[in-house]
Each structure stands twice: as structure tokens, then as C-alpha cells.
């Protein structure tokens, strides 16, 4: 697959504070790419630099193998869906969608019938039929989202940038739009670069997930791999599903604040040394239960449980005061009740842990 | 697995980064306006400074440089008197617009809680500004004259038996007229700054037992200072450049620098008018600079 | 602290203040209904009549009081105001557009523009007359006076547009660019319609300032007078109630302008509210 977008060592600083500190990435054609990053990680800046609204301080940006850093935004052919939609308030829905087609510098479509036809098609694709003549103030948030999408898709760009597109929608709508966005993208066959701060959204939507951390791409892979093999303790932290212990490797164990944890899992070289175990890989057993050879065991006091539909998240305090979270899927066993402040053994298989050295 | 980050198959353009056209756009957007100001504002002022050094014969002026007009200005009683009158009237009008306007600004900006009402009151104050300046100057004549409205009313209610003569065609009439015309420029900025004071600050002071005057002195007055300074700058600029009000209401008794310029131009004494003009410019520059030092406007606004 | 007492006192003061502001105009209006041609510009009102209004329009039999020279002057003032309005608004919009991005020397340019509203009319008028004399250019209301009017009103238009652009959300422009629409066309079709209320206020501001402007025009308009100059000419001579009648009419004209402006702004504010609602959703 050819790369539709390539970023080489892109830097951008604002008043001396770096926002992008050497971005290297490659986006394939016809894929859904999500960019995950906590607030302040520079994800909006990256999007704006790709779109051309900001100029990078150094580095190269290649779009369809053509250098575009320095090219003004209206000459790049990259679509953009804004977080606040940025619909043209003085134009109707249909006029908003047709705007790019009829007013662009390169190849504007002058035949009104052709324009009407293409607008009609895209309205059908995104599901806005019947709303063509409405004013932008007379439609709901989800509908505005679709207008913003349709407006850019009708111009047939090779890539579309979406800046937290689901952020302004309520939870229900967000769920629905996730599936719709993927469907729409597949039908159009263009690459979507979808920026979000929500790890569940990033994992759910992207064929490829990029993780942005402190101005750099910390990991770029598919969702499954990211979920099971975060490339560093920081990335693991973003995923919000790992218990992470600082410390260091000593001998054949990891010296952590709660004692030595036997090694045996995957060792990865990256950043600060850490030991990570995913929430759903931990079993809760009574303190007197036996521990197998290939298992790691620590003790903790139960605090509370949180029920979230298909799973239960249980919270424990470790001896040094840290919180440890365990996720138990209810399809595996009936929910057990735990005594508050009761002591339990938390056990997991050695090889399920991730060790960063 | 992590994606391969290279694509050796497609050749990549390593051309120079395409140049941007943004700086040019800014230049061309500003050029007409900046050029206009340079040609029609800066050049005339510079010309005025230049001409003030020209030689003035009875009806003509010549580009021969001399300090004669300057010397005449500073050694003549009339002209020094005009300078002094200008400074004096400016100070008096500045203080009077402040004293007259501040309480009204206090009421509208601080005491009126309803935003619509306070905006309406401000609009009410500003409307006269939108009528012709000359008409407003003129309107004082029938008010202040011997048979004018004020005298008539005062006589009718028996406060005085003889009409007050000094109301019109005196320095007092000029001061009254200017105060009325320009006090709006004090009320506006002060009311604006007062409106920005957080009412909870005043409530807290009241709870701590502070009386009105204390609160005024320590909280309200300092916080309104930027508005006072802005108003003072507006009023000062306008009063210093005045000549119409003094001409219309003082019957040639009050001579401001502005009046000097007008009469000198009338007699074609260009170099002399230019000298008066430069003096006025320096005076204004000094006043504005001094006012800007009172409060660091950038910080407060 | 007697808060309500102070509030009452200040309220009374403000009412008196407003009387102070409007007093002369009211007296002027009353006296404009003085009978003529014998009635003079002072109390008492001999008899109420609209004589002086008729006198303004030349509808009264000739008397020793010359009619105000307003026909030509009125036309010149209106034409000058329209010309000034157009030029200074164009300059104001382009300059404010330039200030949307940071650039070197923006402080200098800003003060250069704002200087135009700070320098008193006498000074710049004098300077212009000197320049015209030296260069041998004739002074006309449509030439030398016109350029000075623009010097005066351009900073006002500029400041109004700066305030408008400050509140303007640039993402709609960026959206248009991302669709392939070049900046010039984006400005025409997206930016301008949305800033139009501001442009309208700038235009009205400039028109009003120019229409009433006279200290700059005094030295720079040459032989043909604008309306304020014609009025000024009557100051030194005896003042008659016809000037008062004129004052009332001109004030009503200003109010009509303001009223139109308020209606237009009301319509535009409603559209701006719709925009704000869009951002909140």
C-alpha cells in the first residue's frame, strides 16, 4: 500500500514551547487512522500543520509523494472537519455542501445540474436527505457533523482530517457516529485521520492507531497490538487499562514498591523502566489460595467495585497506598462479592506482564 | 506490528520548500492606508514645522530660514497670553468635565444594576454627540445671553433681579460650553471601567464595615483610573485644538492657540500661524505623554 | 453606609446631568418656533410660528434677513460624506484584515493610523493648506478637504473593524480554504458577509463624522463651502432663529440616521446570535 501522507521530523514550537518535537509518521492510503493523545500533546497542532493552517518550523510533509510544507491550505487538497463544525452560517445546508465544488480554484464545477447531482449523492451517503434547504441553525449537532463531513467529502479529497469530530456530541450519538464514520469512509475510499483524546474511541475506530506523546509519535500500529503491547509505560498509561509499577530490573525479578515481581513476560526497551499488567489479566483470590509456579502474586485490600455493563472494575489499595484496578468480565464467571477492607490475593500469569527496561 | 515508515518505491521530490506569499499580502493590505496617512497627515505636519522657520513679509512668505517668527511669538504678550489661556482653559475644562461627569458615570456604571438600563442611559448621554458640533456650540447662546433662558428662568423664580451679564461672551461661557460638549467623553470611559468592577469586591468591603467614602477612595477610584485617563486624553486633545467654541461664545475675548492660528491664516501670516501650530503640537504631545504615564494603559485595559 | 441614599442622590444628579446635556438643544428647539422676521434669537417667544422653517426653504417673502446659504453647501457636505465613507471604510477593512496576523512594525503602523484621529483639525488643516500653497495646488472640498476627512475617519473605521475581527471565529475561513477555495474568494463570499454589520457601523460612523466635520475643512476646502462652514460663517454675524430651525432639522436628520443604523444593527445582531448558537451546539 502506498503512503498517502508522510511526516519527516516535523517540529513546531509556539513562543519557545515545543508542540511537535520531531514527528515521523506514514499514513497508508484508504485506511482509517486514529491519533490518540491526551490534551496538550499537540494533536490539534499536528492536524493544523498537515492542513496548512500552521507552518512547521522544520521537517518535511509529503502528501501523495508531493512536498506540501509551505504550500497554502487551499492548494493541498486535504479535507478538514472541525471540532466546532465551522459551518457557513449564512448558507443553507445544500449551499454549505456545494460551496467547495463551485468555488474552488482548481476545477470548479460550473454546471448547476452536476453540482446538484453530486450534492444529492453525498447527502444520501451521509444521511441528510430532506434537510437540504434548512439553515445551519435549524439542525441538530449530529446533523451538523454530517454536513461538515459531506461538505468536504463531496470535493473528493485524498485524505480527510477530523479534529475530535465526536467530541461535541452526546454519548449515545457518539456511539452511533463511530460506526457511521467508518462506513462512510469505506464507501469513499479515502484515508481519515481522526484525532481524539479518548482511548476507547481511538482503539474502536482506527485500522491504525498513532499515539502522540509529548510532541512525538510514541507508537504507530493496529488496535490489537496497541492494546496488548503498548510500546512504553507512557503509552500504557494513555490506554487506561494497565496497572503500572515503577522500579528496576534486579536479577531475574522486577523490584517494585510492592516487592519483587518475577519476570517472564515480554521485555521491551523503552523509556523509564516499568512493570505493567493489564486490568483484565488479573484474578482475585482469597489470601489462602495456592499460587502456581508461573503466576505472580501480591496482596491488597479491597476498596470498591464499579459495575460497567459487561464487566466489573474492582479497586484495591496496595500496601504502599497505590490503587490497583482489576477488570473482571462477567461472561467468565458470576460476580463475586468482596469484603470492604478485606485482604485478597491478586494473581496473574508471569508471561502476561509487560516489562519495560 | 508497527508500520514500516518508508516507501522506497515512490521517488520523493526533495525540491526546495515552496515559498510562502503571506508577508506580501500584509504589505499590500497596509500600503494604501499607511501611504494615505504619510502623505496627508505626516507630510502636512512636517510642512507646518518647516514653514514655522520661514521668513514672513507682510503678505508673502519665503523659504529663507529664520527664527524671527519664533522670537516674535515668545516675546509678545498677546501670543504668550494665548498660550497661557489655552493651558488655563484646558486645565479648568479637564477638571470640570471630570467633576461633572464622574458622579453620572458612577451612577450609570456602578449603581444601575440592569445592563439594559445602563446601556440605555449611556446611549442617552451619547446622542447629543451625534448632532452637529456647531449647532451644539450655537445652542448655548440663547441659554446664556442677557435675555437667554437661564436668566429668564432665574428672574422668573426670583433668584435674581438683574440678568447675569457674565454668563455670555466671557471666559465663563466658554468653560460652560466646553464642559457640556466634552463631558460625555469622560462619562463613557469611566462608566465602562466602573462597570467592570466585580460587585462582590464592594460587598466584601461593606461586610468588613467600610463606609462609602472609604470604599470610594480605596477601591472605586483607583479601579476607575484607566477610564479617567482615557477620558482625560480625549477631552484634552479636543479642548487643546479648540477654537470654534471660544469664537462663538466669548465674542473674541478668549483667544486660544487655535484662534491664533485661524486669525493668522486669515491675514495670510502663514509662518506665524505655523509657529502657533508647532507650539500647540508640542503642548498636546506633552499632555498626552504625561497622561499616559499616570496609568499603564496597556496593563489595565 | 447609606447605600440607597447615595444611590438616590446620584440618580437625581444624573437626571440633572441629562438636563444639562440636552438643555441647550431644547432651548434651541423652542426658540426655532419664534415668530419672524421681527422675532430675535432670545426669549420671550413673541408668538409661536413655523416662519423660520419656511424661511430655510425660501418659502417666505424676502426680508432683511438673508437665507442660509445651504443648497450647494448641503450637496457638497453629503457628497463629501459619501466619498469619505467609502474610502475610509475600504482602508479600515483592509488595514484591520492585515492586523489579524502578527507582523513586525505593527505597533508603528497602529499608531500612525490612530494619529489621524488624535491630531486636531486646525493643525492638519493648516499643514495641508501650507502644502497646497507650496505645491501650487488649488484647495477644493473634493480634493484637499476630502483627503483630510479620510485621514480623520479612517482610524475610526479601522478601530471598529479591529473590534469586529477580534470576535470573528477564523475557523469558517480555514474551512473554506480546506475545500480548495482561494483566500480572495473566501474573503468575498465567507468573511465579508459575516463582518458586514461591522462594516456598516464603520460606514455610518465615517459618514457622520465627515458630514459634521469642519475644523479640518476650514482651511482646506477653498472657496466652495461645506455645510458646517456655511453655518460657521453665520456665527460672527447676527444669529437669527433660522439657524435654530436649521439646527433642529439637522438634529432630526442625525436621529434618523441613528435610527436606521439601530434597525440594521438589530437585524445583524440577530444573525450574530444565530452564529453564537451554532458554536454552542
Query: What is CATH's topology name of the largest domain in chain A?
Result: Rossmann fold
| Rg result of chain A | 24 Å
Most strands sheet of chain A: 6 strands, mixed
CATH architecture of the largest domain in chain A: 3-Layer(aba) Sandwich
Strand residues, percent of chain C: under 5%
Strand-and-helix sequence of chain A, N→C?
EEEHEEEHHHEHEHEEHHEEEEEEEEEEEE
Query: How many β-strands of chain C, per DSSP?
Result: 0
Question: Which stretches of chain A are poorly predicted, pLDDT < 50 over at least 5 residues?
Answer: none
How much β-strand is present in the residues of chain A? Answer: 35-45%
Q: Please write the string of helix (H) and strand (E) elements of chain C.
A: HHHHHHHHHHH
Q: How many domains make up the coordinates of chain A?
A: 2
Measured by residues with Cβ under 8 Å of the partner chain's Cβ, the largest interface is: B-C, 84 and 81 residues
Structural class of chain C: mainly alpha
Main location (chain C): membrane
Family (chain C): Belongs to the binding-protein-dependent transport system permease family. CysTW subfamily.
Domain ABC transmembrane type-1 (chain C): 74-261
Subcellular location (chain C): Cell membrane
What does the model show?
Chain B: Keywords: Cell membrane, Membrane, Plasmid, Transmembrane, Transmembrane helix, Transport. Chain B: It is a multi-pass membrane protein. The complex is a heterotrimer of chains A (357), B (301) and C (281). Chain A has helices at residues 43-51, 93-103, 112-126, 141-153, 171-188, 199-205, 223-228, 233-239; strands spanning 3-14, 17-28, 32-36, 58-63, 66-67, 78-81, 159-163, 191-196, 208-213, 216-221, 242-246, 248-250, 253-256, 259-262, 266-268, 274-278, 283-286, 295-307, 311-317, 323-329, 343-349, 354-356. Chain A is of the alpha+beta class. Chain A folds into 2 domains: 3-228, Rossmann fold (3-Layer(aba) Sandwich); 243-356, Beta Barrel (OB fold (Dihydrolipoamide Acetyltransferase, E2P)), CATH 2.40.50.140. In chain A, strand 1 and strand 2 form a beta hairpin. The two termini of chain A are 34 Å apart. Chain B is an all-alpha fold and 301 residues long. Chain B has helices at 22-51, 68-75, 77-111, 115-126, 133-138, 141-144, 149-156, 171-182, 184-195, 199-207, 212-240, 244-250, 257-266, 270-294, 297-300; strands spanning 54-56, 61-65. In chain B, strands 1-2 form a two-stranded antiparallel sheet. In chain B, strand 1 and strand 2 form a beta hairpin. The longest helix of chain B is centred in the first third of the chain and has 35 residues, at 77-111. Chain B is globular and about 70 Å long. Chain B starts with 21 loop residues before the first helix and ends with a helix. With 281 residues, chain C is mainly alpha-helical. Chain C is 75% helix and 0% strand. Chain C contains 11 helices and no strands. Chain C has helices at 3-31, 51-56, 71-98, 106-118, 121-135, 141-166, 171-178, 183-212, 215-220, 227-236, 241-280. The mean pLDDT of chain C is 83. At the B-C interface, helix 1, helix 3, helix 4, helix 5 and helix 6 of B face helix 1, helix 3, helix 4, helix 5 and helix 6 of C.
Amino acid at each position: 500500500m502506498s503512503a498517502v501522507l508522510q511526516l519527516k521530523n516535523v517540529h513546531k514550537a509556539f513562543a519557545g514551547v515545543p508542540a511537535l518535537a520531531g514527528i515521523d509518521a506514514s499514513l497508508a492510503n484508504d485506511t482509517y487512522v486514529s491519533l490518540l493523545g491526551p490534551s496538550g500533546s499537540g494533536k490539534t497542532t499536528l492536524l493544523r500543520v498537515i492542513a496548512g493552517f500552521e507552518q512547521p518550523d522544520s521537517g518535511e510533509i509529503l502528501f501523495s509523494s508531493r512536498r506540501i510544507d509551505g504550500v497554502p491550505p487551499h492548494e493541498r487538497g486535504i479535507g478538514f472537519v472541525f471540532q466546532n463544525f465551522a459551518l457557513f452560517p449564512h448558507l443553507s445546508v445544500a449551499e454549505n455542501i456545494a460551496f467547495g465544488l463551485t468555488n474552488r480554484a482548481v476545477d470548479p464545477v460550473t454546471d448547476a445540474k452536476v453540482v446538484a447531482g453530486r450534492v444529492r449523492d453525498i447527502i444520501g451517503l451521509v444521511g441528510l436527505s430532506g434537510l437540504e434547504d434548512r439553515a445551519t441553525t435549524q439542525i441538530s449537532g449530529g446533523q451538523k457533523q454530517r454536513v461538515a463531513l459531506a461538505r468536504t467529502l463531496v470535493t473528493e479529497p485524498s485524505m480527510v482530517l477530523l479534529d475530535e469530530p465526536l467530541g461535541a456530541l452526546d454519548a449515545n450519538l457518539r456511539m452511533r457516529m463511530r460506526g457511521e464514520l467508518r462506513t462512510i469512509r469505506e464507501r469513499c475510499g479515502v484515508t481519515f485521520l481522526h484525532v481524539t483524546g479518548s482511548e476507547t474511541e481511538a482503539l474502536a475506530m482506527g485500522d491504525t492507531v498513532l499515539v502522540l506523546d509529548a510532541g512525538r509519535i510514541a507508537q504507530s500500529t493496529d488496535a490489537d497490538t496497541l492494546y496488548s503491547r503498548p510500546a512504553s509505560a507512557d503509552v500504557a498509561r494513555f490506554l487506561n487499562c494497565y496497572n503500572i509499577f515503577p522500579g528496576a530490573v534486579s536479577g531475574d525479578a522486577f523490584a517494585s514498591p510492592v516487592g519483587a515481581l518475577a519476570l517472564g513476560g515480554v521485555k521491551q526497551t523503552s523509556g523509564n523502566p516499568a512493570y505493567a499488567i493489564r486490568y483484565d489479566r488479573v484474578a482475585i483470590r482469597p489470601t489462602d489460595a495456592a499460587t502456581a509456579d508461573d503466576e505472580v502474586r501480591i496482596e491488597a485490600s479491597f476498596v470498591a467495585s464499579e459495575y460497567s455493563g459487561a464487566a466489573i472494575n474492582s479497586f484495591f489499595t496496595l500496601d504502599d497506598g497505590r490503587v490497583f484496578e482489576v477488570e473482571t468480565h462477567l461472561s467468565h464467571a458470576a460476580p463475586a462479592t468482596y469484603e470492604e477492607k478485606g485482604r485478597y490475593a491478586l494473581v496473574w500469569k508471569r508471561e502476561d506482564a509487560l516489562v519495560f527496561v | 506490528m508497527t508500520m514500516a515508515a518508508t516507501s522506497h518505491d515512490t521517488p520523493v521530490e526533495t525540491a526546495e520548500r515552496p515559498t510562502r506569499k503571506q508577508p506580501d499580502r500584509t504589505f499590500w493590505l497596509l500600503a494604501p492606508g499607511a501611504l494615505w496617512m504619510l502623505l496627508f497627515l505626516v507630510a502636512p505636519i512636517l510642512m507646518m514645522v518647516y514653514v514655522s522657520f520661514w521668513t514672513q513679509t507682510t503678505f508673502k512668505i519665503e523659504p529663507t530660514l529664520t527664527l524671527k517668527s519664533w522670537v516674535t511669538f515668545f516675546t509678545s504678550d498677546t501670543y504668550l497670553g494665548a498660550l497661557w489661556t489655552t493651558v488655563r482653559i484646558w486645565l479648568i475644562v479637564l477638571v470640570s468635565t471630570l467633576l461633572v461627569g464622574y458622579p453620572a458615570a458612577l451612577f450609570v456604571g456602578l449603581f444601575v444594576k440592569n445592563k439594559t438600563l445602563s446601556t440605555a442611559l449611556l446611549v442617552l448621554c451619547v446622542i447629543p454627540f451625534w448632532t452637529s458640533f456647531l449647532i451644539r456650540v450655537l445652542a448655548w447662546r440663547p441659554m446664556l445671553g442677557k435675555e437667554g433662558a437661564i436668566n429668564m428662568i432665574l428672574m422668573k423664580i426670583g433668584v435674581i433681579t438683574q440678568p447675569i451679564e457674565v454668563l455670555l461672551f466671557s471666559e465663563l461661557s466658554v468653560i460652560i460650553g466646553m464642559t457640556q460638549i466634552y463631558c460625555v467623553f469622560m462619562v463613557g470611559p469611566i462608566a465602562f471601567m466602573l462597570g467592570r468592577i466585580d460587585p462582590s469586591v464592594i460587598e466584601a468591603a461593606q461586610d468588613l464595615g467600610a463606609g462609602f467614602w472609604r470604599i470610594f477612595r480605596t477601591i472605586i477610584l483607583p479601579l476607575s483610573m484607566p477610564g479617567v485617563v482615557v477620558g482625560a486624553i480625549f477631552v484634552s486633545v479636543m479642548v487643546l485644538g479648540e477654537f470654534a467654541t471660544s469664537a462663538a461664545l466669548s465674542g473674541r475675548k478668549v483667544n486660544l492657540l487655535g484662534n491664533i492660528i485661524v486669525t493668522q491664516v486669515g491675514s495670510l501670516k502663514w509662518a506665524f500661524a505655523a509657529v502657533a501650530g508647532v507650539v500647540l503640537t508640542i503642548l498636546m504631545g506633552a499632555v498626552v505623554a504625561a497622561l499616559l504615564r499616570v496609568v499603564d494603559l496597556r496593563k489595565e485595559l | 453606609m447609606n447605600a440607597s441614599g447615595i444611590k438616590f442622590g446620584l440618580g437625581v444628579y444624573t437626571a440633572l446631568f441629562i438636563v444639562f446635556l440636552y438643555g441647550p438643544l431644547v432651548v434651541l428647539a423652542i426658540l426655532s418656533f419664534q415668530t419672524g422676521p421681527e422675532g430675535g434669537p432670545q426669549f420671550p417667544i413673541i408668538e409661536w410660528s413655523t416662519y423660520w422653517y419656511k424661511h430655510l426653504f425660501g418659502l417666505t417673502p424676502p426680508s432683511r434677513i438673508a437665507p442660509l446659504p445651504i443648497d450647494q453647501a448641503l450637496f457638497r457636505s453629503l457628497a463629501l460624506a459619501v466619498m469619505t465613507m467609502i474610502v475610509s471604510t475600504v482602508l479600515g477593512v483592509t488595514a484591520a484584515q492585515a492586523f489579524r496576523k502578527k507582523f513586525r512594525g505593527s505597533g508603528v503602523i497602529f499608531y500612525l493610523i490612530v494619529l489621524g484621529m488624535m491630531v486636531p483639525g486646525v493643525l492638519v488643516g493648516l499643514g495641508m493648506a501650507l502644502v497646497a500653497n507650496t505645491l501650487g495646488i488649488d484647495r477644493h472640498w473634493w480634493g484637499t478637504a476630502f483627503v483630510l476627512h479620510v485621514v480623520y475617519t479612517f482610524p475610526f473605521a479601522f478601530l471598529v473593524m479591529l473590534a469586529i475581527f477580534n470576535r470573528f471565529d477564523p475557523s469558517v475561513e480555514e474551512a473554506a480554504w480546506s475545500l480548495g477555495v482561494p483566500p480572495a474568494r473566501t474573503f468575498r463570499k465567507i468573511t465579508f458577509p459575516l463582518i458586514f454589520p461591522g462594516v456598516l457601523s464603520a460606514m455610518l460612523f465615517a459618514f457622520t463624522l465627515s458630514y459634521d466635520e469642519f475644523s479640518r475643512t476650514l482651511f482646506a476646502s477653498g472657496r466652495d463651502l461645506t455645510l458646517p462652514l456655511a453655518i460657521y460663517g453665520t456665527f460672527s454675524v447676527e444669529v437669527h432663529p433660522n439657524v435654530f430651525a436649521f439646527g433642529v432639522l439637522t438634529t432630526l436628520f442625525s436621529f434618523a440616521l441613528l435610527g436606521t443604523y439601530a434597525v440594521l444593527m438589530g437585524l445583524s445582531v440577530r444573525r450574530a446570535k444565530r452564529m453564537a448558537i451554532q458554536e454552542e451546539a
